[in-house]
Design a protein that fits this description.
This protein has 474 residues and is of the alpha+beta class. Helices cover 47% and strands 19% of the residues. The two termini are 60 Å apart.
Length: 474
């Protein structure tokens, strides 16, 4: 059961079916109530018309036994004391009115004691049941009940209409309108709803199931391809993109973009490991050779070369560790420090460097920013002919640290490539000087993670100009 309702298709089908079911039940109930109300109103209007016809006769002074009463509808005439004074001939039982009597009570002093027969005999006009003309009262009241006429029982809507009948006092006429049509119509509508509702819900469920299956088919294709990519570890594969231009298509595009970024990251990591292994192999091999020679021939041991190779290993290990921390998303922090003072500190002891640094506050990791300046100065020293200039200034909301040299500069085609890891434009000289092609890559990564930029240009004299821009601390 959990597996069945664990799919999006099943939940969508169940949800749509429940929503439609609730809507249909509510609409059906509203229809039935409206239908019943309308039919009840019609029955009440029919009963009121019948009662008003009798009331008009009573108001005209017509005797009880000469009233023209509808034999197909229950009619009662009740006096102010609640006594039945006239009723339909075929009335056998009644409920829902002021009295359940079906036979009029004898009236003293006249012939108007019987039930109304509708006889038009003028000889009875002088009976004591007759009276002066009256007027119709106001305020019709309705009630529900039942009656039996000529052996047939049914439910009725009764209308009670008052009338002032002259010397006969206040009378009330009760007349019933049949509710058979209302009950038949409501029952028919209810039967149709009970039969049609399950069929309609079945159609809704089937259509929803088919539509969701069609809509989710591309999702299943994406899932299957992702499973295959996971099993094969082939990040060059891509999921199929449907031509629907909807959310599923955008999901496929985003998935492919994620796969591309993951592939780039993995390839970059592989190149990083390969390049790091290559860079480590040279100083380790050189150091091993020198140590082996020293073991065999102590007088030939080159201590200066061994120390230099050890320093190269130490610097390279530190660079690799910093890159690993940057790739892991290490946050630079938000400590405030003076970039001008840091620049003067990093240039100390470098005779070829001229410093023009103003005080300017920035936020971040002082150690990492200091590493950027060190890398830029080392790079400038390797390529400068005689002089390196380090300046720190404010430029609006930015603090700019610029390192310029008087060397040959960087060709425009290589100005972005030099920031890639393990890239060296002068392979032989960089290796001899101990460069591994990581300094500028580290510098740019640190600049970006501090919300800044690192770019390279050219000074008027032709040398390289590196500009580190960091946001001024507020």
């Amino acid at each position: 059961m959990r597996r069945i309702f664990g799919s999006v298709r099943s939940r969508a089908t169940l949800g749509a079916t429940l929503v439609v079911a609730v809507a249909l039940v509510a609409a059906g109930a509203a229809v039935l109530l409206s239908l019943r109300s309308n039919l009840m109103e019609q029955a009440g209007n029919e009963a009121q018309r019948t009662a008003q016809n009798v009331v008009a006769q009573l108001a005209a002074g017509k005797p009880y036994d000469r009233l023209d009463l509808d034999d197909e509808s229950p009619v009662q005439v009740v006096d102010a004391n609640g006594t039945l004074v006239a009723a339909s001939d075929e009335l056998e039982r009644i409920s829902g009115t002021a009295t359940d009597a079906v036979r009029p009570q004898p009236q003293s002093g006249g012939t108007g004691t019987g039930s109304a027969t509708g006889d038009d005999d003028d000889d009875a006009a002088d009976d004591s049941g007759s009276g002066e003309a009256g007027e119709i009262g106001e305020g019709t009241e309705f009630s529900d009940g039942s009656a039996t006429i000529d052996g047939e029982s049914a439910d009725y809507r009764f209308a009670a209409v008052p009338v002032e009948a002259g010397d006969r006092g206040r009378l009330t006429v009760y007349a019933g309108g049949s509710l058979d049509a209302e009950q038949s119509a409501v029952n028919t509508a209810l039967t149709v709803m009970l039969i049609g509702l399950p069929l309609l819900l079945g159609v809704v469920a089937g259509v929803t199931w088919l539509v969701t299956r069609r809509a989710l088919r591309p999702v299943e294709g994406i899932r299957g391809e992702m499973a295959a990519i996971t099993a094969s570890e082939d990040l060059a594969r891509r999921v199929p993109v449907p031509g629907t231009h909807d959310e599923v298509a955008r999901l496929a595009l985003t998935t492919n973009e994620t796969l591309a970024a993951l592939q780039t990251s993995v390839e970059r990591q592989r190149r990083f490991v390969a390049d790091a292994s290559h860079e480590l192999r040279s100083p380790i091999a050189s150091l091993r050779t020198q140590l082996e020679v020293g073991v065999a021939h102590p007088e030939l041991l080159d201590l200066d070369g061994a120390v230099a190779d050890t320093v190269r290993l130490q610097v390279l290990a530190a660079d690799l560790l910093l890159l690993a921390r940057l790739d892991a998303g290490e946050r630079p922090g938000d400590a405030r420090f003076d970039l001008g003072a840091l620049a003067r500190e990093q240039a100390e002891g470098r005779d070829e460097v001229t410093v023009e640094a103003r005080s300017a506050q920035v936020a971040g990791s002082r150690g990492q920013v200091g590493r950027v300046l060190t890398n830029l100065l080392d790079n400038a020293r390797r390529h400068a002919r005689s002089a390196v200039t380090l300046t720190v200034r404010q430029d609006g909301e930015w603090v700019v640290a610029a390192v310029a040299d008087d060397g040959d500069g960087v060709a425009e085609a290589d100005r972005e490539r030099i920031f890639e890891r393990f890239v060296r434009l002068d392979e032989a000289r960089s290796r001899d000087d101990g460069g591994a092609g990581l300094g500028l890559a580290i510098a740019r990564d640190v600049a970006v993670r501090h919300g800044g930029t690192l770019t390279v240009g050219r000074v008027p004299t032709g040398g390289a100009l590196f500009e580190l821009r960091l946001p001024q601390a507020r």
